Amino acid sequence: MAMEIERKFLLDRKPDELIAEGAFTRRTRQVIEQTYLALDEQQEIRVRRLVDADTGAVEYTHTFKQGNGMSREEVEYSITESIYEQLFRASGAVPLTKTRTTGEWNGITVELDRYDQLNLTVAEVEFDSLEEAESFVPPEWFGEDISSKREYSNKKVWRDLQNRK
C-alpha cells in the first residue's frame, strides 16, 4: 500500500486572492465531489467525481485510506462513471464538494481546497518522507498547521455535513 504523507494548513484567504497577490501560481482547477461509503476512526473508503474546470474532463476514483494525521496508507484507482453512480446512489449521502486549485509556491506543489458547503479553505502539501514533511517551513500565508487536527479531516467535515441534512 502506498503512503500518503501530507501537511494541511488553515487559510484565511481564497485561492483567487493568493493568485492575484502572486503568492501562488495556478496550474489546474478541479471541482471535486466526494462521498464516503464506509469510515471509522482509522479507515475510510470513498468515491470521487473530479471535473477539470478548464477542460470539462471528468474522472472517477475509488480510494481506501488507513490511519490518521500526517502519514496514512492509501490505495486509489480509477473507476467508471457507472460504478461511481451506483456507489454514490447506494450511499444516499450528500457529497462533500470542494474546488481544488493546484499550483506552485516556491517550487513546491500546493493544493488549495475551498469547500463549497462551508467557510473553509485549506492548503495541502504532499511529501516523499516524514522527515521532509516535518522539516517543511511554510510561508506565513498558509496559516495554522491543522495536519493533526481531526476536526478538519475530510471525513469529519463530510460526517458533519450528513448531520445537517
TrEMBL record:
SMART domains: CYTH (SM01118). This is CYTH domain-containing protein. Residues 2-164 form the CYTH domain. InterPro entries: CYTH-like_dom_sf, CYTH_domain, NeuTTM/CthTTM-like. Pfam families: CYTH.
